[in-house]
Amino acid sequence: MAMASRKPRDREMLFDSVIALVFILVACVDLCDGATVVDVYRLIQYDMSGVPFGSRLASLNHHAASLHFSPHADLSRTVLLIPLRELNMSFVREYIAESKPLGGLIFLLPRMFSFENKDGKESTHQDGSKELLKNVLGELEQILIHTNLPYPVYFAFEDDNIDAVLTDIKKNDVTGQPATATTGGYKFVVSAPEPKKVVSPPITNIQGWLSGLKTDDDAHQLPTIAIVASYDTFGAAPALSVGSDSNGSGIVALLEVARLFSLLYSNPKTRGQYNLLFGLTSGGPYNYNGTRKWLRSFDQRLRESIDYAICLDSIGAWENELWIHVSKPPENAFIKKIVEDFSSVAEELGFTVNLKHKKINISNPRVAWEHEQFSRLRVTAATLSELSTAPDLLEKTGGLVDGRHFVNEAAIVRSVKLIAESLARHIYGHQGKNIQIFADNSNLAVNPSYVRSWLDVLSLTPRVAPFFSKDDPFVMALKKELEDHTDEVNLHRDVLDGMFTFYDSTRAKLNIYQVASVTFDLLLLLVLGSYLIVLFSFLVITTRGLDDLISLFRRPPSRKVKTA
Amino acid sequence: MTVFHFFNCAILTFGPHAVYYSATPLSEYDTLGTSIKAAVVYLATALVKLICLATFLKVSESDSFDPYQEFLKALIGFIDVAGLYFALTQLTHRNISQNHKFQAVGLGWAFADSVLHRLAPLWVGARGLEFTWDYILQGLEANANLVLSISLAALGSLMWLRKNKPKTLIPIIYLSAGIVATMPSITSYLRRGLGWHFPKVVGFELFTSLVMAFISWQLFAACQRPSA
């Protein structure tokens, strides 16, 4: 019995030791593969009307160099590692805009742009340098977006590992010596599949409906006010385009207005005689393509019942001036009324709201403001924004520089107050009277922590629409939030059409290997060869004597003589 | 290029064994069979050792130095000596002199050790893109190990095969053999107990291996004299 019981145990032990051996081997593999790994974010790749733009490659396998490379070096097989702090625009224009050959580009962004570092606390720099970096990055982003780069371009954030690598590379470049194991030659490897086209990029518009109090029998007689904000972004790095200001601030303001009015509308006494329509639209950077589809899907009667629409766009980083952009002439009665509402409330809140009129050119495909999509369908609409002029296509769409710490919560809170108060005056007919419905410290006050938490969430969520999956958790979260504040929420799904084609693979892992040069390997071989020869000679001499060693070299000819 | 590096490291790790075999009279007397047998004995010993380690040792989570565990490990390490004893005394060899026998056994022993412990990491690691000095150091360690194995085999053959040796030398022989046999434990202590880095440990190993080789050579020569 004892023997029988011992045998399986022995076998078990053997099994254990084999497993241990395998584990040791695996551990060895892990140890040996201990190169630095960095998260990198790829420059966007897209076609506009069939013309290629952005970075056209994803996989990378080249030696690294810094900006201190020798002027005549051939860089077609070299990755340039460029920290944003040292970037000068003349280099960018020379290399990027003239599309000189490069193996690849990696831009190192300061830590303060990282969306994980949302407070920007570590920035000991002056605000001036922060602004400067922001401007440089903004300019770089626009150049990168509008150029066709036939090599991989990535963004990464500075950290201790990559800083050490950069220092090594710089040292190496300054001395001008070829990379060796001792002086720090680095190879950058990103193994990514070839980027594929995103087939039929989805657009999901979220619409929430808060119905007003019916006094007559026919609800459709009630006028509707629409509050709209586009929620998606576009930027040089899709995985980093969180768009805190454009248009995270608009989304937050819309959600807070919805929350405030849901409180008012939950009580029949304070329920207004206006329906409220909240719309979170997609496709904003692409001429408000999603807004257009959403409006076209409307029932004719609903569209006609819209009294006016207020579009919110970039309202999170202003000081004391907001703009109302309209496309109908300011003399128009509806426009006049909207502007009067807003400017009177703004005056009470201590800032100014200015009107800006920009005519629509129907033949021009560019739609600069979201309200223009409404205006094209003859719905009165205006855009509330901190921007005084209309941005160009793919500009101010929530790219790299649009981070959390460039947005001011207080500005959003003031914007929300302005919007809610003006709407309330319009809805309840209190025009001209100085009544504060959403006064501070009342139960209808704007909730700054709600604003902050949503802003934080939005500032962590890249929202480039073509890379959203069909039921993206973020879209579902927005829908759920709107469901909490409105009576009825619908998702309107469509496909982004028009001139844009997008390619996937937006983020990757960069492996940094310290490598030895071929010369080093040759040298090593030489050293080892001579070591073995010396060892051989030494052993022969000590065990058989010097004569034997000499005869070793003489023997072959003598053997030849014998065979001959 | 990385295959090149692998090739270099392989030369450093296994080259000296081949050189030793071809340079010394071992090749003339065709002692390859003895070396192979010794290598097989080494494999069996390693298996027994592995089982003992798995049975008696706790798996330590931390990389710290635990004296009791290390003592056990050193005891288990002496299984090597038993294996060597078996290889030197029990294996039936063709009629080769004691002089060549211990060299052949030591060589086979060291070669099997190198193959078992260093080939797989080398194959997996040295071909990777990342350059480290580790594999070159590991090759140097293999050299030190070759010298130590042959020294141990020499001392073993003095202890077990030679009958008429000077009485005064016997304690020295046993002491030296003991030191050589505990070398793995000593290096493990240096690495983990004192926190030495790999290059320093390898330097120490190379140094001690040369010293021990010199001592055992002198002892061997001293024992040779009266019989000659």
UniProtKB/TrEMBL annotation, chain A:
One of its GO terms (cellular component) is endoplasmic reticulum membrane. The keyword Oxidoreductase does not apply. Keywords: Endoplasmic reticulum, Glycoprotein, Membrane, Signal, Transmembrane, Transmembrane helix. InterPro entries: EF_Hand_1_Ca_BS, Nicalin. It comes from the Eukaryota. It is found in: Endoplasmic reticulum membrane. The chain crosses the membrane at residues 522-546. The keyword Transferase does not apply. CDD domains: M28_nicalin_like (cd03882). Its main location: endoplasmic reticulum. It is a single-pass membrane protein. Belongs to the nicastrin family. This is Nicalin.
UniProtKB/TrEMBL annotation, chain B:
The chain crosses the membrane at residues 39-59, 71-92, 168-190, 202-223. GO terms for cellular component: endoplasmic reticulum membrane; plasma membrane. It is found in: Cell membrane; Endoplasmic reticulum membrane. Keywords: Cell membrane, Endoplasmic reticulum, Membrane, Transmembrane, Transmembrane helix. InterPro entries: TMEM147 (IPR019164). It is a multi-pass membrane protein. The keyword rRNA processing does not apply. Belongs to the TMEM147 family. This is BOS complex subunit TMEM147.
